[in-house]
Amino acid sequence: MRILGKNMLTLLILSIVFILLPVLLQFNNYYLFLATTITFLAVIVSSWNLIGGFAGQLDLAAGAYIGLGAYTTGTLLIRFNVTPWLGMIAGGLAASTIAFLIGYPTFRFGLREVWYALSSAALVPILRTLFLLWEDVGGPAERYLPYYSWSFYHLRFSTYTVYFYILSAFFILILFINIFIKRLKIGYYLLAIRENEEAAEMLGIDTRRYKLYALILYSYIVGMIGGLYACITGYIHPSHFDFWLSIQVAVLGIVGGLGSVAGPPLITFVLGGVAEYLRSTLGAYIEGLHLIFYGIILMLIILFEPKGVSALIEKIAYRYGRRYRRF
């Protein structure tokens, strides 16, 4: 309970920071856009931690779930004027349904590690091609959501401030879910599966079922965020099925520290923020500079601490005589 109380205090401080940040950035729309983009990425990375960090499954389908959520929410709004608040729920259901249809046979037949990674990665180009050919939802053309300068029902705003607050609320919620699950029986089961799946099975843990639970929860959250992403961008297009996003999410989750609650979002805010800033400011002069930056930082982290940023912080804290518990 003492540890949980400390974590709740951390979440409270984060909430205050997120509330005050748009006030500090209100005179610079670009920085507000940057903060919104990085928070969007941090939400997905923290969600990925459920399947990748806890269960140890290298999932590369985040781009597929984002696209499904975006198309479900956007199509319901464009065709039937269904509020995106309901559309996001439907988008999460669509994403988790596809995840179940892929995950059940995959886990049932014991596909692990690189084979599971390849299976999940294939979902992104398959769905992208399918939606390119599906004329009823727009095919290769962009379909624009109705424009409103300020509409809570349609989730359309002319400022990024509201989107930032919504994403911040999601981010705090996902962190709480990570903390909560990590301290439940299912959390211990998932960590046991990550460390040694065969040993977990010998102990009587139904590894397939618990991996499927983690996959469904992760895909549902990412599908909901995909619906919000459609409202932020203002359109739906097959490009929302972004394989690079899937790779980026997995890399940030791994480098942040598998199973760590704080590590993945921390590295996302730092590394993602600097890389995005370099891309937007110096990208016109040196194309791909942000990717070079990504590569150098990742190589340094892997060389100095293969277990990720969270383990690196733990070592530094112990070196300076301060007790640190992985959060």
From TrEMBL:
GO terms for cellular component: plasma membrane. GO terms for molecular function: branched-chain amino acid transmembrane transporter activity. InterPro entries: ABC_transp_permease, LivM-like. The chain crosses the membrane at residues 7-25, 31-51, 58-78, 84-102, 114-134, 162-181, 212-237, 243-272, 284-304. Keywords: Cell membrane, Membrane, Transmembrane, Transmembrane helix. The keyword Membrane applies. It is found in: Cell membrane. It is a multi-pass membrane protein. Its main location: membrane. It comes from the Archaea. Coiled coil: none annotated. This is Branched-chain amino acid ABC transporter permease.
